[in-house]
Amino acid sequence: MSCLFCSIVNGDIPSNKVYEDELVYAFYDIDPQAPVHFLVIPKEHIPSAGAVTPENSAVVAHCFEVIAQVTKELGITDFRVVSNCGLQAGQSVPHLHFHVLAGRDMTWPPG
Ligand code: AMP
Ligand code: ZN
User: Fold this and answer.
1) Ligand 1 close to Cβ of residue 83 (< 6 A)
2) Is 92 exposed, middle or buried (0-12, 13-18, 19+ CB in 10 A)?
């Protein structure tokens, strides 16, 4: 199965790495929507937030630990975490990912 983010995890497609461990990979978004915009993804292929189950949810908790750790290391206290699920919600890559956006005022509701 070809998946853009699986290819980034296995190094076939280059990325600007922010963080990596055995479960999670984080890298800067190629089309940043804020002064700081990186993505945190499980290395395991999970298609979206709609495919999280009791069997795979531990890695989701770990993604949030990584988000807390990396933002702290970058000196970021205020940030937004977004996961688009499905085409109508704007998901363009079908591999679960958490956008971390920071460095500018954020509006609510999101568009
Ligand atoms: P989404 O549209 O919510 O599925 O988010 C996918 C994100 O992946 C978008 O913000 C894209 O800019 C980003 N993206 C696509 N290709 C790459 C790439 N090769 N490296 C880094 N980010 C990418
Ligand atoms: Zn994948």
Assistant:
1) no
2) exposed
Decide whether any atom of ligand 1 lies within 6 Å of the 89 Cβ.
no
Residue with tokens 């999670």: 24
* H-helix segments, 1-111: 4-9, 57-73
Whether the pLDDT of residue 1 is over 90: the answer is: no
CA distances from 72 to 35, 63, 77 (A): 16, 14, 7
pTM for the full predicted model: 0.98
Position 111 scores a pLDDT of: 86
Token pair listed for 72:
């702290």
Query: What region does 37 belong to: left with phi over 0, alpha with psi -120 to 50, or beta?
Result: beta
Q: Which residues have CB under 8 Å from 87's CB, separation 6+?
A: none
